[in-house]
Amino acid sequence: MSRNTFASAHAPAAIGPYSQGVKTKLGFVYCSGQTPIDPATGELVTGGITEQTEQVFKNIIAVLEAAGKTLDDVFKCNVYLSDMANFSGMNAVYATKFVAPYPARTTVAVRELPKSCLVEIEVIAE
After folding, report:
1. Of 18, 19, 54, 16, nearest to 37 (Cα)?
2. What span, in angstroms and rounded, lies between the C-alpha atoms of 33 and 81?
3. Within 13 Å, how many C-alpha atoms sit on residue 97's CB side?
4. Taking a C-beta distance cutoff of 8 angstroms, is the pair 67, 11 a contact?
5. Alpha-carbon dihedral sign for residues 48, 53, 58, 60
């Protein structure tokens, strides 16, 4: 297997046995889920779903940049919400980050996310 890991100092460091991202020899980039942690403080950003989703995208952009990619290169997103009641708030921010043709997306509610955050998003880019 050929995989190269990468990381950005402008996104939260991995806190377990995983990489911020992996790039395959075929050029696919798999980014680990990003939570609304401010990399400068290591703390969850204050505010609600809007502020948290904005921070998640800042972290995603930083990780993608470390791989030489941008949001324009994303073709699949997986969104995890702690509560589907936050869907419209997350979706409003999400809609400002991509242009048509939009990436494929899955959105699910999960029981709990790290640090009790409201949203986590992972992306795949090419």
Report:
1. 54
2. 12
3. 24
4. no
5. positive
How far is residue 36's CA from residue 60's CA, in Å, rounded to a whole number?
10
Burial class (CB in 10 A: 0-12, 13-18, 19+), 10: middle
Domains of the chain: 3-125 (3.30.1330.40)
Chain Cα centroid distance, residue 57: 6
Lookup: tokens for 28 = 């696919």
Q: Say if residues 78 and 33 touch (Cβ distance below 8 Å).
A: yes
pLDDT in tens, 28-69: 999 999 999 999 999 999 999 999 999 999 999 999 999 999
Q: Is the separation of the CB atoms in 117 and 31 below 8 Å?
A: no
